[in-house]
Amino acid sequence: MADEPLILGIETSCDETGVGIVRGHTLLADALASSVEEHARFGGVVPEVASRAHLEAIVPTMDRALSEAGVTLADIDAIAVTSGPGLAGALLVGVAAAKGYALAAEKPVYGVNHLAAHVAVDTLEHGPLPEPAIALLVSGGHSSLLLVDDLARGVTPLGATIDDAAGEAFDKVARLLGLPFPGGPPIDREARAGDAAAIAFPRGLTAAKDLAAHRYDFSFSGLKTAVARWVEARQRAGEPVPVADVAASFQEAVCDVLTTKALAACRANGIETLVIGGGVAANSRLRALAEQRAEKYGIRVRVPRPKLCTDNGAMVAALGSHLVAAGVAPSRLDLPADSALPLTTVSV
Ligand code: KG4
Ligand code: ZN
């Protein structure tokens, strides 16, 4: 609706410079500049390289988003920006830019949580999120299960990874299979030609003895080590590594655990909506398995399209829009870039 507020969102927490513009739940622009290729040869994101790339990209990306949406800065009602968590130097670029634009154009500014934004982005595709919902957040830096009772004011963490994040496991396993960084997309691709039942890789924290203390927690480091040992044994024996089968079997282990625990959280809390967000939510097997298993319990799975799952500015704008609609007060102009912003803080 034309009378809903026009919100601009800025994202710079990792290696993507994103500026998105939304009106209510309608996406008008989603401009993105990625430094991922500059990090590829290091096999992971280099913070200094990311910060510099954000500095170079932020103004052109901002201009591109405004022109894509056909609006000017003066038309914007509020600016939202990722305040944390993320890389300190990278976050600073976005926060400083948001403050500059907000001050120059006399607009309110909302410093928001990157992880809550990964949940909020789904509203751009599927409309308002029924609350309470369970959210499964799986990215390169985080893997968490949350109870979302009021996305504008706070979420309740149910569990999280005790070691590697799910995306990190994809990136590390891809590396040992000789696949490029980031590892999620090439593993997803390879796995399509592989047999997911070829190798029985471990499912971390699913044994009865672990469930008592870690019902909704995840562990992917043992899985990563098991894949490494399996591949090394093959190589030592002088046998070829069946990359597609390893990729499929590894991916199956991750998706099995993620969907089992997320659906258990829904059922234990009597919740009928599961929303999945973060870069790993782009995984085709995770999406299919979640849908297939949820159907049995009458649980609705909401996953945004892959482009909205990985980091972008639209997700920040979507959360900003939700905060404005809920009547949450803007942040102070001295809002921080907080690399360790807790999951429970939706806006600063
Ligand atoms: O949310 P995101 O873009 O950035 C962070 O906040 O971390 O997530 C990036 C992560 C990377 O680890 C990448 O390998 C993973 O998401 N990823 C995927 C897929 N696409 C991206 N993992 C599995 N399957 C995919 N299709
Ligand atoms: Zn992210």
UniProtKB/TrEMBL annotation:
Subcellular location per the Swiss-Prot or TrEMBL entry: Cytoplasm
EC numbers: 2.3.1.234
Main location: cytoplasm
Matches recorded under InterPro entries: ATPase_NBD, Gcp-like_dom, KAE1/TsaD, TsaD
Pfam families: TsaD
Protein name per UniProt: tRNA N6-adenosine threonylcarbamoyltransferase
Reactions this protein catalyses: L-threonylcarbamoyladenylate + adenosine(37) in tRNA = N(6)-L-threonylcarbamoyladenosine(37) in tRNA + AMP + H(+)
Residue numbers binding Fe cation: 114, 118, 311
Annotated cofactor note: Binds 1 Fe(2+) ion per subunit.
Swiss-Prot/TrEMBL cofactor(s): Fe(2+)
